[in-house]
Every structure is written in structure tokens, then in C-alpha cells.
Amino acid sequence: MKAYDGMYIDGAWRPAAGPDVIEIVGPADEQVIATVPAGTVEDVDAAVRAARAALPAWAATPPAERAARLAALRDQLHARRDEIAATVTAELGAPEKLSQTVHAGVPVAVAGSYAELASTYSFEEKIGNSTVYHEPVGVVAAITPWNYPLHQIVAKAAPALAAGCTIVVKPAENTPLVARIFAECVHEAGVPAGVFNLVTGLGAVAGQALAEHPDVDLLSFTGSTAVGRRIGAIAAGMVKRVALELGGKSANVILPSADLARAVNVGVANVMSNSGQTCSAWTRMLVHRDRYDEAVELAAAAAAKYGDRIGPLVSARQRDRVRGYIEKGVAEGARLVAGGPEAPRPQGWYVSPTVLADVTPDMTVAQEEIFGPVLCVLPYEDEEDALRIANGTVYGLAGAVWAGDEAEAVAFARRMDTGQVDINGGRFNPLAPFGGYKQSGVGRELGVHGLTEYLQTKSLQF
């Protein structure tokens, strides 16, 4: 076990204000692997003050120089990919291959995309007799989740830095170790002191203090909708800008003309990735009643292949929560066709890849975000029924549509109340805007739309 000390504030690792620490427990073996300082209100205040002091100079730094620092950060992340992947595997429990390709690989691409955008985006434009300037919003408070611990930091920090903002990051208490590596990469990339700051700690203490700090101009939060509501209320009360990326209950709509086997297999893989701990996972599979039994059989067979391929959940609490949802689904009338609530291994916070059939739209498992390797398969009667079911939750983060004809799939997707839809297995695009409708959030991340979240406009008339 390693005991980490200090917070990254104003360009250096500084001792924490208080003596308390947080134990980081490995989900695979339930052993303490490290401790980090539990940040206090004093630590948060020091970080915000450093960010505020660094803001004028960083905001005035030419975009080309900001782009150069981001390019150096991208290179640092790439150089430490193996270490990053190993750290995520240890603290989150993600399988090594997933840690390499997604948890370590995607942040490199995202950081690189903002290095490019910082040098090409038009921070100034002419509109009639006006000159419009796109200026940094100011000091950003970023509160990030545990499920994609590095990606979510980069998805906030990179555009904030590109825009000319300064930032304080409070990572999830479950997975703060990779955040410390990121701070080291920022330092080695030559980002000036105070521009990026890191405070580890509990959400109820450090997160609350950060959200309520009067010198924070924008709150960027990724996590549960329940916490997002509280963050939004704090922001509204202080008239702060807010960006919220929240929960999802995404529909995977398989139209009758689709390649059923491919749609089901890709859909199951999507749900099981990262042990189901993905807000945009297609956790509701909608299949026409004429092919429903075949789809259920295919889904059960596909899920069975993931029994020894997925990692544990992040914590005992999360494991128990997911098991509780499985039990509730069965109690409400769902049919268990793969997996179940029983512990698949004697050690570690594992949940079996699970498929629930005969799910109806009003069941709890069809309405609430489970955040585990659990797929619900729902039948529909016709296209209008499928659309009603797909749009019938409070969420609208992501989704998928499958059809033999691409135009048919696009026409259906355009009617879905959701922020991002994959057509016939479309690939992830780190430049496309990501974010939700309804209670899945406010604002967008990634690409140019992610950059504009951190900008405000000023017009001069001549």
C-alpha cells in the first residue's frame, strides 16, 4: 500500500490542510492499495485562489501557446499510457485491455483534439458592425466521476485550458490515483502554476466546498442526476454557469429490417463494457414482438460469453445496488435468462452479466439507471410503440438504432429524445458533441461544442 501526500495547488504538491485520508480499495481483491489526503474547505479555497490568481495571464496567453501546452500534455499522457492503464485497472477494476484501449487511449485522443482546436478556433469574429470576442468564462470547478476517471477529467480540463480558463478538479474518491498522474502530466507539459489544480477528497466536503465557492465561475459536474440537481441548485442560487453530464437509460432500438444477430451481439457488448458502469450504455434493448424470442435467446447466449471477461464493480455498495435491481426486476415480473444476483466469485465486487426478458416499460429496471452489467429486453408492437418506449423515461443521453436501410434508421433516430444516437453500430467520435436531453444533463462535452461551454461572448459595436 502506498500513502500519497499533498494536493497539486499552484504548480506544486502541497501538504493537505487536515490529517484525514481516504483509503483506496481494489475492487478485484478488496484490499487497500493506497491512501490519499481527504481535502478540506481550506484546501479547496487555496486551489480556487491559485486558479483565480493565474487566470488573467492564462486568459491572455495566445491560443497558439495554449495549444502547444495541450499538445505537450497529450504527449505526456501517451508516454505514460501503460502506467495509466495499470492504475485504472487497480483502482477501478477494469480489465487490462479495456484500460489500455479506452481508459488510457481515449484521453490521448481528446487532449490532442483540443490542442488542434485551440489553434484553429476563431476566438474573434465580425458580425455586421460588431466584433464578437469569445473569451474564457473564468475559474472552472470540475467534479468528476469514478467510472471513466481519466477521460472525464480530460474532457473537462482540456477544453477549459484551450479556452483560456483555469481549473480546479475534484476527482471521485474511489478513483483518485489516475488523477494524480494527470496532474504530473500537466506539470511536465509546462502548464503555468495555478492554471490546473487538483484536490482529492469526499464529495460532501471538498465537492460541496468547491461548488459553493464564490470565486468559481462555472461548475462542471459528471455523475448521478440526483447529485446533478443539487449542483444545479447551487449554481442557480449563485448565478453561476453550469454544465451537467448526468444519468441515462438509453434505448437500443432494433427495427424489423435490421441484422438481428449483429444488433443483439453489439448491443450486449455495449452494456457489458466497463462492467456496465457507463452512463450512455444501451441498457434497454427494444425488439419487435415477431422476433422477440429469437433476440432474447441471442442476448442470453452473448451475455454468457462475458462471464469471465468483465471486471468487478467499483465498490461493495455499487455491487449491492446492482444486485438489488436484479432482484427487484424479477420480483416485478421480469424473466431472468442470464446471470442473476448471486455472487459469481468468492472475492471481489463482481456481478454476473445479466439479461432480463419480458420487461415492461413501467418496471423499475426499465426506468432507473442500474449502472451495472444488466440488460433489459423489451418487446414492441410497431414503430410508434417502439418510439413511445424509447422516449418513455426521464433520461435522454444516448441510444442506438438498427435497420436494414440507413435512411430508415436515421428517420427513427431523429424522433428520439436523446443527445447522441449510433446508427447501425456507428463508431465513437471524440469530436462529436456528447450530452443529454431532459434529465440527462445540460451542455455538451467533446469537440468544438465542448470548447464553447467554457467561453462567453463579448461584442463591440463600431
Automatic annotation (TrEMBL):
The active site is at 245. Keywords: Oxidoreductase. The keyword Transport does not apply. Gene3D superfamilies: Aldehyde Dehydrogenase, Chain A, domain 1, Aldehyde Dehydrogenase, Chain A, domain 2. The keyword Oxidoreductase applies. It comes from the Bacteria. Residues 13-459 form the Aldehyde dehydrogenase domain. Belongs to the aldehyde dehydrogenase family. This is Aldehyde dehydrogenase family protein. It comes from Streptomyces althioticus subsp. attaecolombicae. The lineage of its organism: Bacteria, Bacillati, Actinomycetota, Actinomycetes, Kitasatosporales.
